[in-house]
Amino acid sequence: MATQKGKKTVLKFDSEEDVANALAKYTADLSDKFIKDKGSFTVVLSGGTLIDSMRKLVEKPYKDSVDWSKWWIFWVDERVVPLDHGDSNYKLASDGFLSKVPIPSSNIYAINDKESPEGAATDYEARVKQLVESKVLPLSAISGFPKFDLMLLGMGPDGHVASLFPTRSQRHEKEGLVTFITDSPKPPPPRITFTFPVINSASEIAMVITGAELANIVDVVLGSGLAADGIPPPATEVSAEEELTWFLDKDAASKLETSE
């Protein structure tokens, strides 16, 4: 099967506020592009600080200019807890973003929180495959996996993305679209997650990283640093089919700057 890596761009900003402003323009511009090209915009969210970094999208001018009716929302990973639980990525996104813009509820794909981790993963994969069959999601010509327009990702201090952790087997899953984990090293332990073949089939990926606590791992992934345990961080495996864009504030990029 043919493989191809897209472009990678690293953007550094003076503050987290500047990151939020740039991320809003980037996302709104992509929304316009994909809606003009194919009539919809499929967006995959993550948890952590990402939703807060998206806060400018629910303000003017974007709140009124983006065609929210054409958005489809998914999650790159989710904690297997009730959707109204404090640990739920759905609740985080709903409170901070989705409740403030008119995306049709039928276009928002939360997990089935009544299922076990394995059941929730199986259900989510089946629902994604249904969207492929109904032509909402195309398949990548490169990988053969479903191709989302934009994935908005964060990264943990250990370099994990989604719920793909350095020492867990899920990071090596190459066949399925969605897998599950019951012993996540970061609580809560039960989660489901897209696999790397799905993540890396996205047209565009934004890695949104802010804060000094992530400076070391940013240097490991993008700079000349080496992981202390010798295990390559999962974030080093992220690549988009069109472009992977890193959004870094000054604090997150601080070690990277000294190693260049």
Automatic annotation (TrEMBL):
Q: Which reaction does it catalyse?
A: 6-phospho-D-glucono-1,5-lactone + H2O = 6-phospho-D-gluconate + H(+)
InterPro entries according to UniProt: 6-phosphogluconolactonase_DevB, 6PGL, Glc/Gal-6P_isomerase, NagB/RpiA_transferase-like
Q: Which domain of life is it from?
A: Eukaryota
Q: Does the keyword Hydrolase apply?
A: yes
E.C. number, please? 3.1.1.31
Q: Where is the Glucosamine/galactosamine-6-phosphate isomerase domain?
A: 15-246
Would the keyword Nucleus turn up in this protein's UniProt record?
Answer: no
User: What is the name of the protein in this document?
Assistant: Probable 6-phosphogluconolactonase
Organism lineage reads as: Eukaryota, Viridiplantae, Streptophyta, Embryophyta, Tracheophyta
